[in-house]
Write a structure and sequence with these properties.
By secondary structure, the chain is an alpha+beta fold. Among the domains are: about 130 residues, no CATH class; about 90 residues; about 100 residues. The chain contains 18 helices and 26 strands. Strands 2, 4, 5, 11, 12, 18, 20, 23, 24 and 25 form a ten-stranded mixed β-sheet that branches. A three-stranded mixed β-sheet has the order 6-19-26. It has a three-stranded antiparallel β-sheet with strand order 16-21-22, with no helix packed on it. Helix 5 packs antiparallel against helix 9. The longest helix is centred in the middle third of the chain and has 34 residues. About 30% of the residues are buried.
């Protein structure tokens, strides 16, 4: 962002850029790459006195759809029609505080709005001798203003006339309340100076009020007869008023009375803070209005890289499509299982079971009424485990029991009927019980949430497959649909690859192009070891594996076997600054007047400078121990500007003799690491969106790494003034209260 993009008085001053919005690359630098980037950024976004700039490590991704809304239709009133959900997203972004230093990591968990509220409620307005003296002077002025003075006859006439007009006029401007002095004459015809001055000013303003269109019709005829006389009377009256000094004297004295004290300013700040709040959508916190500048800042969160820039080898894309397709199949199988919860009618199955039981009971009854009990008992012993009636076995048993054949005629058919009825009962019971258990299990564990999550995952994967398919088509076919001739990487040199993609669209750009030539040594260890991602002593490693902080304790495990020890890189990216206005609910100017306030709890302090720091300018390049001491307090600084970068391109030159092996190691580390240099990357196979991915291109003499971004790469902090509040006294100071006679 150029300096003209932000004209806020408290905004950082941006250095003048070249006409092409680019900082030319210098000779290959060595040392700490972090400091090299910081120096380049400071050329564009140089803090003024009272501010400091910090680099974010690792870079922090920004999701465009969280902040996107239609700013074109809103026009100049965009800040008043911003969607609530967008304002909440922006507020959550700018409400986070950080442990300040030259390098910052993740937010420290504190919220600016909560800390601000805590600090305000810990302040008590101070009271010194000058305020006591002012109170005494105001008391004398008040007595003078309220002293009754004789009212001249024309003053009495003026008051009476005004009172009559207020009672008879139909215009809304004339009312008893607008001329309260009408009933303030004392019994001896006196009026105090304050009310007299008010009467004169009201009379002077009446002709202007009468000139309003809504009152012209009522007064036109009257003014036509009395204008000349009235003007003469007013001239005489106000000649006397000037001579007596009422109009100017009263206003002069009011200047002594109408003074906003520090106590009132503190109360106004509290009122503004409370009145500006609204509840978040989830009800977990209070949200306050913020204004990001430029208002359409989110539109720059899309990359300028083309599909061709971000399209690696076709075979790799095809393998990724195959892997994602298999994930989709597995997720769809699980979703189908959850959605396949039994939908059959339980009542219908219950009715079938009841009917089968009834049929079985009837068959049992028919068997008992047709045959003797000894015949039935013998028949039941001849039923196999499978339910079949064995007639041969029954005949043998009947002979042994001396049962004549006439007594069991038809027993075989009756037993088959009973057996069939029992089988029907078992089948119906099994179907009913199985369905009942499935329905009970489904009701006990609601799968609705899991189904929604699976649906979202499937949709995301299908979107990724569609994007990857588009890339393959773009790589295989030209605009006419003909097959493209595959490019031979050995014919493309690293120097031929542009360091930055062209900017789409016409007109000026708020983005600044930054190019850095950098040379590093011993980027990797030749043995399996763990090297810290960043530390001031060892500098910044090329790859890092994850989390980090300003103390640089994160590490990146590397088992590479690179044969080179020196690498020359050319790094290019685009950067811009987005500033934030927290409107009237946040008033940090109060903290610059801390000498005029007491504190209740001495442990609640926004910032206390070390004794070695004599002014805010001494904190711009403060050492780590100074910031460590200040970070113990609630809010040593707060962010006012966010430096965003995108279109990161890293061109690495490799030795031709070892290029193949070195290039493969680079590509392997690129896909497995969590970040490269300052910037975060996503290596997750399930999250390969263009703005979070990292893409490599092999050339004949090296390789090109592209990180579309966008990411926050730095912050402009406003340094909080030194806390000079004093302990609240045990008693109220003398002269605090207005005298009793008032």
């Amino acid at each position: 962002m150029s300096a003209s993009d932000d004209e806020s008085p408290s905004s950082p001053v941006a250095a003048a850029a070249t006409p092409s919005n680019a900082i030319p690359a210098s000779a290959a630098a060595t040392g700490d790459f972090m400091k090299a980037v910081q120096q380049q950024l400071l050329q564009l976004f140089n803090p003024t006195s009272g501010q400091t700039f910090a680099v974010q490590f690792p870079g922090r991704f920004l999701q465009e759809d969280l902040y996107a809304w239609d700013t074109e239709k809103a026009g100049i009133y965009g800040q008043f029609s911003k969607p609530v959900v967008v304002n909440e997203s922006e507020f959550r972004l700018v409400d986070q505080l950080y442990d300040v230093g030259q390098v910052v990591g993740a937010p420290n968990g504190s919220n600016l709005s909560i800390i601000y509220q805590e600090i305000l409620n810990n302040l008590v307005p101070g009271f010194d001798s000058s305020q006591a003296n002012l109170a005494k002077q105001q008391d004398k002025i008040r007595q003078w203003l309220l002293k009754d003075v004789p009212a001249a006859p024309w003053i009495k006439d003026l008051i009476e006339e005004r009172h009559q007009r207020a009672g008879t006029s139909s215009t809304p401007d004339a009312s008893n309340g607008s001329f309260a002095v009408a009933n303030k004459l004392t019994e001896d015809g006196k009026v105090n100076r304050m009310e007299l001055a008010e009467a004169l000013m009201e009379e002077d303003a009446q002709p202007e009020k009468n000139a309003k269109p809504e009152s012209m019709d009522d007064l036109t005829q009257t003014l036509a007869h009395i204008t000349a006389v009235r003007e003469a009377q007013l001239s005489a009256k106000y000649a006397d008023a000037v001579v007596l000094g009422y109009s100017h004297t009263i206003r002069q004295y009011l200047g002594y009375m109408d003074i906003t004290s520090p106590a009132e300013m503190l109360q106004n700040a509290k009122d503004s803070f409370r009145e500006s709040s609204s509840s978040s959508l989830d009800g977990s916190m209070n949200v306050y209005p913020v204004q990001m500048t430029p208002v359409d800042w989110f539109q720059g969160l899309s990359t300028s890289f083309s599909l061709e820039d971000l399209t690696p080898n076709i075979d790799m894309i095809q393998m990724e499509i195959d892997g994602k397709s298999k994930q989709i199949d597995a997720l769809q199988t699980r979703l189908a299982f959850l959605q396949g919860t039994p939908t059959a009618d339980l009542q219908e199955l219950k009715q079938k079971l009841d009917n089968a039981q009834s049929t079985n009971a009837q068959a049992q009854a028919d068997l008992s009424t047709t045959f003797n009990a000894n015949v039935v008992s013998a028949a039941l012993t001849c039923v196999s485990p499978t339910g079949d009636f064995l007639m041969t076995e029954f005949t043998t048993a009947a002979k042994s029991l001396n049962i004549v054949p006439s007594l069991y005629t038809g027993i075989e058919g009756a037993m088959q009927k009973v057996g069939g009825a029992q089988v029907a009962v078992v089948n119906a019971s099994r179907a009913y019980t199985t369905l009942l258990s499935e329905v009970t299990a489904a009701e006990a564990s609601d799968s609705t949430l899991e189904q929604k999550e699976l649906t979202m995952q499937i949709t995301s994967l299908q979107s990724d497959v569609t994007e990857l398919t588009t890339r393959i088509k773009f790589l295989r076919f030209d605009a006419s649909g003909a097959l493209k001739t595959p490019k031979d990487p050995t014919t493309v040199k690293t120097a031929d690859v542009p360091i930055l993609p062209p900017i789409s669209g016409s007109g000026g750009s708020r983005w600044q192009d930054i190019t850095i030539n950098y040379q590093t040594s011993n980027m990797f260890s030749t043995t399996n070891s763990s090297s810290t991602a960043y530390s001031p002593s060892s500098g910044l490693s090329f790859f890092f594996g994850g989390s980090s902080s300003s103390s640089s304790k994160s590490s990146a495990d590397s088992s590479s076997h690179l044969k080179q020890t020196d690498f020359t890189m050319e790094v290019g990216f685009r950067a811009t600054m987005v500033t934030v206005d927290r409107s009237g609910w946040f008033q940090p100017q109060i903290f610059k007047q801390s000498t005029g306030f007491y504190h209740i709890d001495p442990q609640v302090s926004w910032s206390k400078w070390p004794e070695s720091i004599k002014g805010a300018s001494g904190l711009q390049n403060a050492t780590a121990d100074v910031w460590d001491a200040m970070n113990k307090y609630l809010m040593p600084a707060f962010p006012i500007g966010y430096v965003i970068c995108k279109d990161i391109t890293i061109k690495v030159s490799l030795d031709s003799t070892t290029q193949d092996s070195d290039s493969s190691v680079f590509q392997s580390q690129t896909s497995s690491s969590s970040g490269i240099l300052l910037w975060s990357t996503s290596s997750s196979s399930s999250t390969r969106s263009s703005h979070q991915g990292v893409f490599t291109q092999t050339t004949s003499d090296g390789l090109v790494i592209r990180i579309p971004g966008p990411q926050i790469i730095g912050y402009m902090f406003e340094i909080m003034p030194n806390d000079l509040t004093t302990q609240l006294p045990e008693t109220i100071p003398d002269g605090f209260f207005i005298p009793d006679d008032d």
